Amino acid sequence: MKFNKLFNHWTYETFPPGRLLRRRYNSFKMLMDLEEECLHIISRIEDIGFGLSEVDWANVEKLSIDLGNKVHLMLEQLQSMNPIRFMDLMDYYNKINFYVRMAVTVPDPDISMPFTLALSESAKHTAHAGANAVVLARIISETDINVLDGMVISSGVYNYFIEANDLRVHIDHILESVTSTDPEQLKNTSEALISVFVKAQMPEAITNELEIAALETAKGGNLLILSASVTPEDESCILPENSTIIHNVNPQDIVSAWKKAVLCKFSPESIKARIKLGYSNRETPVAVIIQPEIKTQDSGSLETLHNPETDLPPADQETGCSAVLSDNDSDPFIFSRRKKQRRLSNPEKQSLSLHSAKTINANGCEIEKMLGVPQKCKWITDLRNRVFITSAEPYPNKGVRAVDRMKRTLQYIANLKISAQNTEMFLPEKSKSMYDLVRFANEKAISEMFSLISKEGLGLDGAKHLTARQPISLTVLNLQEGLFTTAAGKMEISPDDIKSVPMWALWFGLGAKRPGWSEENSIEGYAILSKTYLNIKLKSEKDLSEIDTVCDQDYSKNHIHFRFKGGDGSADERIARIEFIKKVLIPVGFEIENQGDLIEAVHKESTEAEIQKKLATIGHIIAHIAISKPVAQNKQQAASEAAIFIANLN
């Protein structure tokens, strides 16, 4: 939605002639358009920060860059309006923009050697071997459990492959468009990423090293198993939904098999899991374990904490059970988790011997004790019936959430520190966020334009100051027949001087008597009005309300466009405040769009009387929000508060 009606009424022709005024007017007009775009970007980032939207972090980076560019343009327009007064403004912008970039930018990962290493050595290279390899290395070094040994292709190979083929920019560009976890969007994103990735070529030096590692692992003529998984940087657990296993790989095909295994990172499920846990693509590289495909007698999985389909005996209900399942059987062995690990049930038809099942279960218990959390392990038995563990990971694996960088991002983008009502704080040097700069530019631009109004303006009588019993203070510009003749020649006016139909209707709600008014919640603003038109900006502490409306006898001209952007309160309180406004306005015919702490409401063509009633309702809403801190603590309370508010209006 655009507030595009103001300049249909406040045209350049309303000012005295002069090139300087034309430049200032054009700068002001552009600044207002840019402010609208900035508010929408800020509210979009808030929406993400409040947990109301799930996007790829690349999208947040793009939004922050777009916001920085638009704020810069906005401040340029303010400088154009008064170069002397705002000459130092860009210094404060550059400082804040630097902090924004620091908050949102995820640095490119290091490309570290070794590119390949023995699986047993992985615990010495925790940053690059991947969590699964590190766990297997610990089992090898800290227990007597048999592990199927092999080699590891470290995450350094993945990072080198991405950089050598200049894929980072292409991948980021694709991920910038991920604005939800909608299955169809993730499917399209996955296909686009895979298309880019598979066309890239492995550098020859890395190819040689991988082939050597593959041949070393395949001694004795074995084929290979590749197990790929994604481990976030500085974490000790793989991402859920981010792993795959490829069997029967020829050593000579190691590069193509590696590429195929790495694609697990780009599946729709993998992207969704990464987004939900708050990681960027750059900090989630892939490591691959290579193991020999030895001849086996059996294979399967082990859950050290199993969720059974049937009730356990009373003595085991507190501690639970573990399960050993063979790939050749339909049902698992169920074991008690108490000290004796008593067998609770067998498969009806079993290919796995009870002895092997007990050995596997005992291995799982030892691994869980070592790692401190329940595990899901893969196992095999060779032709001599020896048990080997091939992988182990936490189960269930819910992943580890990333550091909440969004909290720091909101601090420099959306937190409002300055207020026009606090003149000591309303300075560019006091600005701490992009939103501070946007509000500063908006306030000063309007102030500049109002200061240009003189009695030489066509049909204008200068800007006037309106005061009332309530702590509401407005600077009013009368375009045409917006005030009674009693206001002529006066700089200070009262509500009784208002002739503008929409302004009087709004004032009916805004200026109504109500308890709770004080200097702390006072309202200030600017109003541009005529007999049937009103454009007004109102500020109360950190809240900003804007209304653009026509209230005419001609039904077809009438409309209301109301925008509210908050800046005060916790995330829950701000979401609740938006919910309150929605609950009040939707029943009376407004079309609503909202994101973050921004809501826009539009009422299209309606009768003059109906428009007046809706404007009075908006006036009541603005005043109620100003004196209610907070309006509600959560969305449920907001609904009940809205019901009370509507009942009182009626």
Automatic annotation (TrEMBL):
Keywords, in A-Z order: ATP-binding, Kinase, Magnesium, Metal-binding, Nucleotide-binding, Pyruvate, Transferase
Catalysed reaction, written as an equation: pyruvate + ATP + H2O = phosphoenolpyruvate + AMP + phosphate + 2 H(+)
ATP-binding found in the keyword field: yes
Lineage top rank: taxon: Bacteria
Single GO MF descriptor: pyruvate, water dikinase activity
Coiled-coil ranges (or none): none
Sequence ranges assigned to domain Pyruvate phosphate dikinase AMP/ATP-binding in this UniProt record: 129-308
Role summary: Catalyzes the phosphorylation of pyruvate to phosphoenolpyruvate.
Protein name: Phosphoenolpyruvate synthase
Lineage summary: Bacteria, Pseudomonadati, Thermodesulfobacteriota, Desulfovibrionia, Desulfovibrionales
